[in-house]
Write a structure and sequence with these properties.
By secondary structure, the chain is of the alpha+beta class. The chain is built from eleven helices and 20 strands.
Length: 395
């Protein structure tokens, strides 16, 4: 499957997402025919080429008939409608997850149980078309991995059924918790709850564009045409490197010379539980000759602030260095090797020139060794031998 990168420098909305997908190669006729499998009437979907500050883009239009909004809808009604349609199973799953993400945000901001959430604007026909249409686009474009840039929310105020609300609207703000966001440009709602729900549900990472070979670029136009910037959502669709995985990560580090060394394993455990990809401790000598330790953690960019909080709370340090790093790693998967000590989880990394590296997982080996009363090394190397031989029982 392909990887997609959403460049949301001018925000993201449902119609911008559809426009970007159409511009990247999703046939309009296919989108229309798939949406026709939904028991939803009272609309027409069209698309046109437009200019946004001089850039060509595709604008998706959902034309509604009079009184086609459908009033208030419960999440359960929408999910039942999607599930009972003739759409493919993966489309149903993606659309259902996006609506559930949106419903959870609405429930949180209104302080009501999920089953009591009323969808107003989001339950309207145009928003159902946007969300289900986006799910169709992910499947038709064969997108399996989604990366998203920092998201421009816009600023100012927006008129809703709940009155005049600040931008980002409460639902949008709740949906983008944990994602990198900023406000720039005109006083306008650049990111809508529908757009936020789509990218928050589908994103596997946030930050700069990952290592990928781009095959198509789609430009989805927003409704407004600003004078000083193109109001578009850029969508890059391509392939991951078959031999290497590139990531832009953050390395956190701090020098500590006044903490009980017995506390370091606890801090490392908290960092790993908080999402750190790796944690390590390096001996060092400080400027006054005192022995010290350098505590380091590697993480995704959107996790850096939370992990810094763990370091400040659970160590004696007064400052943390933050360094942006590029990491290239081998594609890997977990397989199970059949040994006389039972099934052992083994990490398999594919080498660029063919072949692989095998590394039994520590916890899996430790548990098997304890259960059998066997030495750790014996279990470890038997798991390696089982993978190398590719014998029966390996899955």
């Amino acid at each position: 499957m392909k990887i997609a990168y959403f460049d949301a420098f001018s925000g993201v909305s449902g119609d911008m997402t559809l426009g970007a997908m159409l511009d990247a190669g999703l046939p309009l006729a296919t989108l229309q025919s798939q949406l026709a499998k939904l028991p939803v009437a009272g609309y027409t979907l069209t698309a046109e080429k437009v200019k946004r500050c001089g850039l060509a883009a595709t604008k998706a239009h959902v034309h509604l008939e009079e009184n086609a909004h459908g009033g208030h809808r419960h999440l359960s009604q929408i999910l039942k409608m999607i599930d009972g349609s003739g759409l493919d199973a993966r489309v149903k799953d993606i659309a259902g997850r996006i609506f559930t993400t949106l419903g959870q945000a609405e429930a949180a901001i209104h302080g009501v149980p999920l089953e009591k959430v009323h969808f107003h604007e989001v339950g309207a026909v145009d928003s159902i078309v946007d969300i289900v249409g986006a799910a169709i686009g992910f499947c038709e474009l064969d997108i399996g991995e989604v990366a998203v840039s920092a998201i421009n929310t816009g600023h100012g105020a927006v008129q809703t059924e709940h009155g005049l609300l600040p931008v980002p609207a409460p639902a949008t703000a709740a949906l983008l918790t944990g994602a990198p966001t900023y406000a720039s440009g005109p006083q306008f709602e650049l990111t809508t709850p529908t757009g936020a729900a789509i990218v928050k549900t589908m994103a596997t990472s946030f930050g700069l564009q990952p290592l990928m070979t781009v095959g198509a670029i789609g430009m989805g136009a927003g409704g407004k045409n600003f004078d000083d910037r193109p109001n578009v959502l850029r969508l890059f669709v391509g392939e991951r490197s078959a031999s290497l995985i590139g990531q832009r990560l953050i390395e956190l580090s701090t020098n500590i010379d006044d903490m009980n060394p017995q506390a370091f394993p606890d801090v490392a455990g908290r960092l790993l539980a908080g999402g750190a990809l790796d944690v390590w401790i390096t001996p060092a000598q400080m400027k006054k000759g005192r022995p010290a330790h350098i505590l380091s953690a590697l993480c995704q960019p959107h996790q850096a602030q939370a992990l810094e909080g763990i370091i400040f709370t659970h160590t004696t340090t007064l400052g943390v260095r933050r360094t942006e790093v590029d990491r290239v790693s081998l594609p890997r998967s977990i397989r199970q090797a059949q040994t006389r000590f039972g099934l052992i989880d083994v990490k398999i990394a594919q080498l660029p020139q063919g072949g692989f590296k095998a590394a039994p997982e520590y916890e899996s080996v430790r548990k098997a060794a304890l259960a059998a009363g066997a030495p750790f090394e014996t279990v470890y190397w038997e798991a390696v031998a089982a993978v190398d031989s590719g014998g029966p029982g390996q899955v």
